[in-house]
Sequence to fold (290 residues):
Amino acid sequence: MSTRSILKVVQTVRTLEGEGFVVRRPFPVPGLMQFDPFLLLDEVGPVTVLPGEAKGAPDHPHRGFETVSYILEGRHEHRDSEGHAGELGPGDVQWMTAGAGVVHSETPTREFARTGGRMHAFQVWVNLPRRDKMMPPRYQDIPSERIPVASTPDGKVRVKVIAGESLGARAVIDTRTPIQYLHFTLEPGSRFEQPVPRDHNAFAYVFGGEGTFGPEGTRAVDGQVVLFANDSDSVVMANTGAEPLQLLLLTGVPLKEPMVRYGPFVMNTEAELYQAFEDYQSGRMGRILR
Ligand code: FE
Fold:
């Protein structure tokens, strides 16, 4: 059986976000502005922050897409204009569908900021189809213990199923369009083939160790993105290093709709983009009450 070939391997760049915290941002970057339906992937840390130095992203709006936060280390709190508030710790996921618009803040908890410590998290932006861009905002706050985990019989390949399905485990998170969001850990010497429907775009982001991908064993290391071609119904990966291979596999059906984006707004037309700015500036996306 053949598996998907590799389109290309992309090196990430480090950039500053929010109040000035370092992220690795595989995309958007010049030459890879999106990977339909995915608009952005940020890896925050891993970094050890000193007491009082943890930074976040204070009050800012979103419209027209979804923000997905997945925490590996540290504690974050979120708060928004819909009156929604909560904390996220290691292993927890927040899948926020901004839809017509929210204003929210994403910061380390007061306690974490005071003590400092290890911070490591991912944020993915998923575009919404035209029909859902103005839907009411929706939250799915899923604690770590509710996220299915599965492994191969020999225990060498482990997967956390944030969205979609792998190794017989099905995600509890509901997505607007078909998406798979899988966190794989492969022990040295192991290999795995994950089914991916042919109509999905698929990429892997390696954030620990090194491995090979695709039928020709294309190498990728920590910090690189592997873009798969849409030429088969599975992707194959193998750990060829001495450390565990850690990666996110993200797949989704491309929307194939016009996309105009500026900062926190992603719409289908320029007019809708201007409208988003106008609605935000005139307070129609609400504000955070404290
Ligand atoms: Fe945000």
